[in-house]
Amino acid sequence: MTLTWRHYLGVALLTLLIFLPGRMSLVPLDRDEPRYMEASAQMLESGNYVDVRFLDQPRYLQPAGIYWLEAGAQKLFGGPHDRHVAWPYRIPSLIAAVSAVTLTAYLGATLFGGMTGLIAAALLAVSTLLTAEGRMATIDTVLLLDILLVETALLRAYIDQQRNRNTSIGIALLYWGAMGCGLMLKGPVVLIPGLATPLALRIIERQAVWFGRLRPRWGWLITLAVVLPWCIAIGVVSHGAFFSHSVGTNFLGKIGHGQQAHGLPPGFHLVVFLLAFWPGSLFLVLGLPAIWARHREPTVRFLLCWIVPHWLVFEAIATKLPHYVLPTYPAIAILAAATLAKWPLTRPKAAWARGLMGLYTLLWGVLALGFVVAGAILLWQSEHRLDYGALIAAFGALPLVLYAFWLLWQRQRRRAAWVVIGAAVVVHAGIFLTVIPNLGLLQLAPRAATLYDDYRPCEDSTLVSVSYSEPSLAFLAGSNTKLLGVPAAAEYLAANASCALVLVDHKDEAALTAHMLEKGFSLTEYGRVTGLNYSNGHHLDLGLFAPVRK
User: Fold this and answer.
1) Considering the entire predicted model, what is its pTM?
2) How wide is the angle at C-alpha 351 spanned by C-alphas 350 and 354, nearest 5°?
């Protein structure tokens, strides 16, 4: 089966349909997403496209590339002051997800045939991790696409060497340009897959003649041309603080110790893979004997050299988050798809290996059933309600999952894969269309921001938040938001009483009132919102107050 442009267009459109549900109704998710959105919004408001800031603090975690993309999307589709609309900031992630899945289909088809490409694209598109990341305005899906372009250029040069054909200069420009864009997105992170893959192949094959096809003698100048202008600008503006913080603290600091309570032992990514790459995780594990039997074939060797070094690096560093190994997922999807479409099932000879595969299959099945009912149960436990949309998704996916179990029992792995991919689409649509938009624990910041908008005394009013410091509140309420403790909040309110309101939890009201009385002010309540702070599980009873001079 040979894929044509019509196949790739179909893959892109289907992927777009998979990632669209709920996109416009989702409130800011996670803690990172509103940080990216707020920094991008402030970039538009200030006109400063060099020095990235979150509220009144510099955000020196990575270069400005992702903020440029999100600010541009917001300017084109949302307008710079429409803060209650989050979806324009998510457009770069949407485009990146669709492009990454389509490019995976191309690579799979190039290496192992058209059916492999289609299955690989489907496994990547419905994987849990990409499903989540592709809907958020964070950097990870865009970085995935960039690294995929880097690996595509490497693979093209490698295959051209194997087949004794010329490698065009465009492939070299793609490699070095993508390396430069990766540096503008996430700094040195792109160097790990970009250099580790050819280095691993050099060690295994004891030669790297093929890498010369990428014109390294002058290609590095293209990378430098991409990153150097902004590096010079931010170096001058920040007086070197950006490099010491982003490289020294953020990048190198993650190696020795876990940052932001994300320190975990080696093996974390291997354990999380069952969930993060579901439903494709089982099909990769079942296909491991077939993959190993062919590990000396050049195409398989390249994919393994793409996966293994990147994976080992992020298992070794102390700070671990699931999305760190996301750039390996296209290669994993291609190998899993090849075991379904091209290679016959190979059973391991050792009894312990068969036992482990059986246990993994059991865990995968339990997880599949958990996915089916999770949305309805979560809404019942959180909101004490049965949502018809969540129930429809559950009852729609359950027969597909059960049928997939039966097909696996009959050893019809390819058919089982397609069926469970369909089940995953139904489950994800239910989660993002009905479950997440109706979860009250995600609505505290939007309701607090709406209350503030109803009572703000000035056009450029300031919201001082004492007890609630979620980035989503800062994004929804605007860049004038102040996240302060009680003494600092009282000081600010006393000095800016005419155009400031304060949001404070019931437990901190007495302390704030006492501090305000000392400064000759009382507090007038305008309204309250209650809910759960999802980041720490604390129940909050937030009151909105205005300072009034006594």
Assistant:
1) 0.93
2) 95
